[in-house]
Recover the amino acids of this structure.
C-alpha cells in the first residue's frame, strides 16, 4: 500500500482523503494510496468523519470558497501552493 507524502521544510503532510466527482479517479487513487474517498456532494460528511487535519482544495477559483469556508469553520488548516510568476 502506497502513501502520498508531501515534504516541507519543517513538516510532512500525509494524504488521507480524496474528494472528487470523477468516480474513476476516486476508485483508482483511493485504492492506490489507501484514501478515504468522497464526492463533492459528500464534502460535509468528509469534514464530519475527522480523517484529516488540513486540506488543499484544487477546484476552479469560483468553487473554492464553498469548500474552504466550511473546512476553515471546522478548524482545519488550508495549505495553498504558491507559484510565483
Amino acid at each position: 500500500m502506497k502513501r502520498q507524502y508531501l515534504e516541507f521544510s519543517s513538516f510532512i503532510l500525509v494524504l488521507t482523503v480524496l474528494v472528487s466527482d470523477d468516480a474513476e479517479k476516486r476508485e483508482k487513487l483511493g485504492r492506490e494510496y489507501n484514501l478515504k474517498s468522497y464526492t463533492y456532494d459528500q464534502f460535509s460528511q468528509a469534514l464530519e468523519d475527522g480523517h484529516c487535519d488540513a486540506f488543499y482544495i484544487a477546484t476552479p477559483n469560483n468553487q473554492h470558497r464553498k469548500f474552504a469556508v466550511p473546512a476553515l469553520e471546522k478548524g482545519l488548516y488550508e495549505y495553498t501552493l504558491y507559484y510565483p510568476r
